[in-house]
Specification:
About 30% of the residues lie in helices and about 30% in strands. The chain is α+β, with helices and mostly antiparallel strands and about 230 residues long. The chain folds into 2 domains: about 1-70, 434 Repressor (Amino-terminal Domain); about 110-225, OB fold (Dihydrolipoamide Acetyltransferase, E2P) (Beta Barrel), CATH 2.40.50.100.
């Protein structure tokens, strides 16, 4: 279905510009036959560089284009925000967008109860598991957000190879959503679901399959927290 939505959007935008498939192929570097199959919904969307070029040539919003191809909006926003932060190191005056303040971030946001403390190190109950995180508040209830890019996946238990204290749990791949170089695994962990975000091909990455049992690891310092009062 995602292929069909992407293809329909591509075809309508190209027609509105009065551009032929061969013209679009010449200006994007995407093969004519591949473009044609994408418009007919029989080929997936291209990688991010080509998606950027398509958005530019056809006057399409890059976020909407990626979402039409099946990438969850929150994954797109996380990726573009990360790129913007990298650019901000070199370019002044960029808008300060923070995906953690967007409503879509609630997909990895939870309310938790603090079970015990050792200074700033807290143990909390999240689903059916006990998690470790950092909080400088003495509140008994916390709102936590787990960044999608902080979720690491392993086929074997990573506890012996991790160099720092981490949350390690058995988990299950409930869904896999992919477009171009992005992978958004939806992971079941102790009765909750987490949305991950990673590149499809990374050095040392594992091949994922829906329904597969895996291990997840989330560093405590990567989890964002804020106290819940009242």
């Amino acid at each position: 279905m995602a292929k069909a939505r992407f293809g329909e959007l591509l075809q309508k935008a190209r027609s509105a510009k009065g551009m032929s498939l061969r013209e679009l192929s010449a200006q994007t570097g995407i093969e004519f036959s591949r473009l044609s199959r994408m418009e007919h919904g029989t080929r997936p969307a291209p990688g991010l560089p080509h998606m950027r070029r398509l958005a530019e040539l056809l006057s399409l919003d890059l976020v909407e284009l990626l979402v039409s191809a099946g990438t969850p909006r929150e994954a797109v926003e996380q990726l573009l925000w990360a790129e913007r932060m990298q650019q901000a190191k070199r370019i002044k005056g960029l808008a300060d967008y923070r995906p953690l303040e967007h409503p879509s971030s609630e997909k990895n946001g939870f309310l938790v109860s603090v079970l015990s403390r050792e200074g700033a190190l807290c143990r909390v109950e999240l689903g059916t598991e006990t998690w470790i995180l950092l909080s400088f508040s003495d509140a008994d209830r916390l709102r936590v957000f787990i960044p999608p890019q902080a979720i690491q996946l392993f086929r074997e238990s990573p506890e012996r190879v991790l160099v720092s204290r981490s949350n390690v749990f058995r988990a299950r791949i409930n869904k896999l959503r992919e477009v171009g170089p992005l992978m958004n695994p939806v992971i079941g962990v102790g009765g909750i679901e987490l949305n991950g975000l990673m590149m499809c091909v990374e050095k040392g990455s594992i091949e994922l399959r829906t329904g597969e049992q895996i291990y997840v690891s989330i560093p405590p310092a990567a989890i964002r927290t804020e106290p819940v009062t009242g």
